Amino acid sequence: MNLVKMTLVTLVLAVLTSCTNPTQTVTPFMDNNPQDLSAWGIVAVQGGTLALGQDVMPYDLNTPLFTDAAHKLRAVWVPPDKTATYREDRALDFPVGTVIAKTFYYPKDSTGTLLRNHDYSADFAGEGLDLAHVRLVETRILVHREKGWVALPYIWNAAQSDAVLERVGGAMALSLLMDDGQTQDFTYVVPNANQCAGCHAPNATTRAIEPIGPAARHLNKTYTYHDGEENQLDRLVRLGKLSGLKSADTAPKNANWRDETAPLDKRARAYLDINCGHCHNPHGAADTSAFYLDRPEHQYPAGNTGICKPPVAAGQGTGGHSFDIVPGDAEDSILVYRMASTNPGVMMPELGRSTIDEAGVALIAEWINAMDGDCRPAQ
Predict the structure, then answer these.
(1) Does any domain span residue 379?
(2) Is residue 158 located within the same domain as residue 66?
(3) In a domain, 90, yes or no
(4) In this predicted model, what pLDDT tens digit does every residue of 352-369 receive, in sequence order?
(5) How far apart are CA 367 and CA 359, in angstroms?
(6) Angle CA 209–70–187, to nearest 5
(7) Of 183, 216, 250, which residue constitutes the final position of a domain?
(8) What torsion do the CA atoms of 318, 203, 60, 250 make, to the nearest 10 degrees?
């Protein structure tokens, strides 16, 4: 067993640590924005562990967003005596006062070297992260106030004791040890508050911010809590925090894009949904492209699937290719070309990454190469 694998085993054991008696209570700030993340009480450092606050529920997604291979601890707090309302095709309708936190971090070895790996299986087990085995980078807060959702980015200090509000965002040089022993150097970018709003506004007309991840199709999976395994939607219902849904069995469910036993089409559509669908939908920022990638369970007209569809705007973003998707030819498809780029004028998504998700690109390429069809005009 090599050093990286041994470190991963250690990390898995570490993240299984469960903080079942949280002491901090959540304060949903409805007017002001505290400078210190700990003031919210949703996540805070306690005895060398990043612990969740009282009545805070961790959650996971069937297929997560790629953010330079960062791992994420997601958590939500719903005010006492209030419930979220089920919505089938959007994020759950959380009540005013709800606080959602997403903490970005990297596993690290005994020397402090940050690791780039794709094993997310144990990241969300239990309710705490052992800081001896992880490096915290940022925590993004979404708070539902009377006038709507507000996004706030917090950056963790060098001491890993707290995170500080940085509305202008930030950037930091990181170096990750890859599974093959190579080192990857890049600039990790923390978005500013406006950029957060850019992705979290799935309707480009209203520009109203809302969560992306906690939608039924992403949440519909089993999670390992400190008191056992349970479907996340069913748990919310059982705890009285979700109304309008009888059972998770009736809710949509995205595939796990890394589950090779799942159909290729479902895996690819799930990946594109979480990474691209917040903009590429009929009402999103990329609505003029008429290339829709959200809601895998929804069947869009052929003209909106990207297959043999010319781009709306030409330029370097096309790479000289003629169609968004060319069946059977990923190399000639604009979609793959843009996913495989880090050029700011070419890359998609435009925000949220400085590196290429090579495994994601490979999945979408495999999906396109398996398609039947021909973009050449009929003779």
Answers:
(1) no
(2) yes
(3) yes
(4) 899 999 999 999 999 999
(5) 12
(6) 90
(7) 250
(8) -110
